[in-house]
Amino acid sequence: MNSIEAGSIPGFATYFWFIPSKQCFASIRFQHLWTGQKSLQCYVESFMSHFASHVITNDDNDDEIEILGYAMHPGDEPESLSPRFRTSLVYKPGETDLIRKSVDSIRKVIRKTTLTLAREEDLTKWQSFLKWTNLRQQPEALQKVRVQYELSTGVTLPDLDAIIDEWNEEHDRQWDDYGFCFRGESQKIRWLSHSLARTEIGLDVARDNDEVVNPASLIDALENKRAAILRLLD
Prior knowledge:
234 residues, alpha+beta, four-stranded antiparallel beta sheet, two-stranded antiparallel ribbon
């Protein structure tokens, strides 16, 4: 919506509802596929690295603040510490366990993901797909592409755990999932995303514009739905 000028940051609005009493936060997604949760981790960790009360600095130089290290308590000598902010997805009880317990019955693995063609790694993958399928190059205006493929193969438990761990670490968008088909279930696909504690809830919010939701109205709407949202943690 904004023109790109010096000092501006292109992107899209993201929303996170922190609930300290539950030691969790919710990613609130509206019209975008991405939640921006990975960027949030980088943002918080960067803040902790430079501005948290644990940071020990040398302020003698007026032009630049030198970070000497980190301490558990302000004023103490620097210790062998480093700032970290990590999150993990919340799962519904039993869903992922069911997939793991039935690993020997997996007959097919389905992968769907969104490739961002501005990223060199994703572009290389997309070009490989085009080559394999004998398709010509897509128009340059294409920025994102959805891909889904399946493999008729069994999976070992270590491989399955690696898939789940990698997906937990990288999952930050809607069209990004792994599905598993089991022997004896000809049509059913068990998706990892269906194991997540997430839902669709209508929120009565006001918008400042087409991109930005008014923050006060969003807080009010979330508080009104607080009980329903927190039931996802049960």
